[in-house]
Amino acid sequence: MTPVHEQRVTLSVIVIGRNESARIDQCLRAVLAAVRDISGTEIIYVDSASTDDTVVKASRYPVTILQLRPWWQITSAAGRYIGYRNAGGDYLLFVDGDTVVYKRWPAAAIRFLEEHPDAGGVAGILHEMFLDAAGGKVAFKKNRYGQKPHTAPVTTFGGTAMYRRTAMEKAGSFNPWVRATPELEAALRIRRQGYRLYRIFAQMAITYAPQRESVREVLRRANSNLYAVGNTYRYCLREGTGRRYVRERMDFIILFAAIAGVYAASAAVFLVTGTGLPFLILTALALAAGCVYGIRRKSLYQVLLSLIKRSVILYSTVISYATLPVYDPETYPLDAVVIKRQGKGRTVN
After folding, report:
1. Does residue 269 register a pLDDT over 90?
2. What is the pLDDT of residue 303?
3. pLDDT at 127 over 70
4. pLDDT (tens digit per residue) in 213-248
5. Whole-number pLDDT of residue 211
6. Strand 119-131 relative to strand 137-141, pairing
7. Which pTM value belongs to this model?
8. Range 59-94 burial, b when 16+ CB lie within 10 A, else e
9. Labelling 101: which of 4, 111, 266, 327 has CA 20 to 30 A away?
10. Which fold has domain 2-211+330-348?
11. Closest CA to 126 of 208, 71, 223
12. Distances (CA, A) of 122 to 16, 95, 187, 199
């Protein structure tokens, strides 16, 4: 599937979403307002087989709408991959469907990339509004990544960021088969091509997300394979970026596995031989560390949640490495359902 555009496109905005009925209007209205004064712009919404009325709502706006088929593997990376394959812009702004982009962000990002040819991508200040199960607002985290008043190179982005098209053409776009940390997996390949990624001190977006610090969200992410770090590591090994992926994503997993292994071994020794001193010492140290963490977080619940979360991530890492297959990106199907075609060009197979 090769994009064929009737005129030059400066910016392609690729919005992805699944069952975003509550947020898609707000998201698309913000995108349209933000690109109004940028000539040569197209907007592509890629829907991940929503079962609500997200597509119906998105159809009211002047955007191209593509939909992944329900029997395909559905990942955030797949939506971005299909959007990329249909986009023609020199710059690619990826936006999650639960996110509201600030009006001045696209122009600021383009200006930065034009002034910094070494930049493969750029992101800005992201705020997060956390929601409960009913969609109510429960907490707000300002400047999630703690961006300081200066430009700084970073290792990766979240779901919302702008990339230079030539950087993705050289390194490859998002791998549609990657379930966990697809942004980092793509960032490693982009950086290997000699590009740098930057986060600048400019307002970028607000994202509306489920509260991460809950057992419910930990289990949801585990069931969605969002903790399938082991499978992503296998991709990185094949791409030659495995060692860097371990350093940037898996160090805490390996540390937790080592601690858990030593603790389990001491417990086994205690049960078999009756020698309990190592086990008791480790138990005391674990309790002390938990108390310190609980005092800092002012919550025993957070201590237990942290232990549960790390255990689930470790389990998911091991299982996904051993059981989930590794496919080439080129094997992902491209014949997405065309709900609506709008804008600067058309796509041919």
Report:
1. no
2. 77
3. yes
4. 788 889 989 999 999 999 999 999 999 999 999 999
5. 79
6. antiparallel
7. 0.89
8. eebebbbbbbeeebebbbbbbbbbbbbbbbbbbbbb
9. 4
10. Spore Coat Polysaccharide Biosynthesis Protein SpsA; Chain A (3.90.550)
11. 208
12. 18, 13, 11, 6
DSSP 108-147: HHHHHHHH-TTEEEEEEEEEEEEE-TTS-EEEEESSTT--
Task: Name the helix (H) or strand (E) containing 26.
Answer: helix 24-34
Among 44, 53, 55, 103, residue whose Cα is nearest residue 79: 44
Say which residue the tokens 């122009």 belong to.
107
Residues 168-188 pLDDT 10s:
999 999 999 999 999 999 999
Q: How far is CA 76 from CA 69, 130, 329, in A?
A: 14, 19, 14
Q: Is 210 buried (19+), middle (13-18) or exposed (0-12) by CB count in 10 A?
A: middle
Q: What percent of the chain has pLDDT over 90?
A: 68
Q: Are 3 and 71 in contact (CB under 8 A)?
A: no
Higher local confidence (pLDDT), 275 or 118: 118
The encoded tokens of residue 234 equal 């296998």
Element spanning 252, H or E: helix 251-273
- Chain centroid to CA 186: how far? 10
Nearest to 177 by CA among 321, 44, 81, 252: 81
CB 339 within 8 A of CB 69: no
Give the pair of three-digit tokens for residue 172. 């490859």
Nearest-angstrom CA–CA distance, 335 and 190 = 26
Rg of the chain on CA atoms, in Å: 22
Judge whether 58 and 24 are in contact, CB under 8 Å. yes
Instruction: Give the domain ranges of the chain.
Output: 2-211+330-348, 242-323
Q: Which of 150, 152, 261, 256 shows the shortest CA–CA distance to 198? A: 152
